[in-house]
Amino acid sequence: MSRSPYIAGLLLLAILVFCLIAGGFTARSEDHGPAPTGPAEHTFAAEGETYQIVAGKVYRAASDGKREYVDTIYEPGYREKNYRVQEGAVFRVVDGKSYRMKKAFHEDFEGVTKLTELIGEQRGWTSFTLQSPRAPNVKDYVALKSRILKSGGAFLDNRVEPATARVHGGRGALKCVAVAKSNDMVCTKASLDTEMLHFVRGDHVYYRAWYFIEGSARPFTLMDLESSWLKGYPGIRIRIDEAGHLDAEVKWLDKPVYRQPEGKETAFPVQRWVRVDAHFTLSEKNDGVVELWQDGKQIVSCKGRTLPLNDVIYNNLEVGISAHAYGNETATLYVDDVSISEQPIPDPPRP
Questions:
Q1: pLDDT exceeds cutoff 50 at 128
Q2: Is 43 inside any structural domain?
Q3: Which domain holds residue 140?
Q4: Largest CA distance in the chain
């Protein structure tokens, strides 16, 4: 299969999904017909209100049992429409073509010199995001991505590209550069994505990557494991908080954060390579597991919610600067030897 139809299908998918992203739960004035009266698929509480999801639509549930339409967060039946199972393997169907989904993925960034060489079926990366003051809105950075993929267009202010200046292993790494956000932005981004994964409730997820922060500006998030099928791409992410400490957060509703023990935090270093390991067990209840290690030392061990909803598919891995939100300086981050798996990741052999 040639790369161009693959990229075209992914671009179309990305544009359709990105067009859904806008704000949180806000009641809409459009006429969506009478609210359904059948049982809810999901019920949850947020900010003192009870919400119910029926056929991908969120309703505010009143005490008298009436429902008020709030938002649409996913397309009903997206799992059945986009995935099929054959001989125990999960395949995703895009433009009539089937792609086998993975529960294990590794990238060492060897043998590539351009960003476009990473995108496609051979390497497994499917997209990237360059949100910045010069491409602040969805339509702007989707258009920028399209230009880069189709014609090798130039970067604007943010960059994601293979590099050789700093590497952990071998001769290549990924360099991510994100300028500071403007006053009307939440964050900037310079990240690389793959939508070739398939993790669901009950799965174990193991993650490892090496990071090098150049300079003093720490990015906010280093990795997101999320669902591209739900509005806002909810999921679990590895962050560096404003005090410079590694933690994890579930990006959904009340956004539970799993932090290092208070008073015993270990700062995330700059100007050297740092190994980050994570282990999650996926659950929409409070029995999920969140564990983080920094340079081999366990710094977070918590139980709690790790999935937004019980039937969510985590299909998208985003690495690099998935958010830069602090200060007025440009953040520069190198990433190398990225691995994600349903099995524990073995340590490399000692030289």
A1: yes
A2: no
A3: 101-341
A4: 68
